[in-house]
Amino acid sequence: MRPKPIIIFEILYCIMMSVGAWRSWMWLGDLNPTLPKTMLLATEIGMFLLVVSLVFFVSRRRSKMAMWILILLTLLPLLITLKMLFDGLLLTDPSLILLLQTTVKMIAILFLFLPSSRLWMSNTNDENDLEETFS
After folding, report:
1. 3-state secondary structure the chain
2. How far apart are the C-alpha atoms of 118 and 125, rounded to whole Å?
3. Torsion angle, CA of 44/61/58/17, rounded to 10 degrees?
4. Which of 43, 81, 113, 133 could form an S-S bond across to 122 if both were Cys, CB 3.0 to 4.6 Å?
5. 53 pLDDT higher than 70
6. pTM score of the predicted model
């Protein structure tokens, strides 16, 4: 049985991915008007499928590699969001949604580091093995 923090991680992350898909759909042409919309849409769908599959590998298969890849893919938008915040570009609706999305995703990632999640990810019942979980 999966612990509650893993379930909460999965739910939060998938909801934020859905919000991101909606945000991309609403403002697809505004991202880069010079690129064809079909290319942007294909990229968005590909990234969506990649990230959702990583979430399920982490939450269902206990994959540590998928967890670290997902963390890296979450940090990239965080850096972009922080740059936009310091440049004063977070005043538009898509940027505010990106800020909300990134914040909730980071909170979801933190659920992976709770003791019950770490114990479940290590696939053991011994709390002494927690140091080996994320190495």
Report:
1. CCCHHHHHHHHHHHHHHHHHHHHHHHCHHHHCCCCCHHHHHHHHHHHHHHHHHHHHHHHHHCCHHHHHHHHHHHHHHHHHHHHHHHHCCCCCHHHHHHHHHHHHHHHHHHHHHCHHHHHHHHCCCCHHHHHHCCC
2. 11
3. 40
4. 133
5. yes
6. 0.81
